Amino acid sequence: MRLRFGNEDSHRHGTPSFMIGESHDDEPKTHPVHPITLRFVSKGLESAYLTEAARERSSVLLCLFCFDILTFIVRTLQLTLGYRAAQREWATFLPQIINMALLWTGIYCINRHSRKGHGKHWAAFQEEALLSATVALAVSVLLLNLRKGSGQDYTFACFFLISATLLLRVRWHLGTACLAMPVLLVHSAPLWGSGLPQVLPQDAEVHLTIAWALGALVAFLADAHRRQMFAKVAEWEQAGSSSLGIAGTQAAQRIVSA
């Protein structure tokens, strides 16, 4: 891979960019992208990438949905077999089932809209923003529900801050912006009189901030790598179609000349 910062079109229109892809001396095959958001300057290529990302994300969401179903089946068996106080647990368990059904129905509809939107930026933005905000809200609730005996569970929040944007195939800047909410919540807890600082272990705020920054870095690198691979595949497909077209033209010319 060869990186080239800037191109004639980007400088002419005042848009900073750099180039990713294969570059040869006779015919440079590079694709300019924005240096921060990594968005392809070519709208057609960006739309195709967003469509492919939504298609890949659907399989990840399916795995998460199956995991949710499995956990609820286990809890249902525990309640049915009487390992917990049935009435009190069912009173809190049924609303959770309803909330999960509504949440996954909404996620499915938005993902379907994004996949059938043929790379429309607004449809992709809606899906990625909803998923990132949902994870950020879940992490915030996890932190707010910590007690003195469970303060060490903030490490689960660190795990989500590092891996959520990467696993969900969300564009790195959207996921990073939404996941800043739990970190800001922890740092602002003393301002609104929360007891969270007394619950969390020492330096937990620093660990959460480092996890958020590390997640942003990993998501940036992964997004750049995926876009590089996508650009290469697009080049190969274009080169293959051009070769087939040239071969067909030559065959037709030989038939006519014969």
Question: What would you say this structure looks like, in words?
Answer:
The chain has 258 residues and is mainly α. The chain has 2 domains: 1-35, no CATH class; 36-227, no CATH class. The chain has helices spanning 8-13, 43-80, 86-115, 121-144, 154-167, 172-187, 196-199, 204-257; strands spanning 4-5, 18-20, 31-33. Strands 1-2-3 form a 3-stranded antiparallel sheet. α2 packs antiparallel against α3, α3 (86-115) runs antiparallel to α4 and α4 (121-144) packs antiparallel against α5. The chain is globular, with a radius of gyration of 24 Å. The relative contact order is 0.10.
Keywords:
three-stranded antiparallel sheet, disordered N terminus, transmembrane helix, membrane
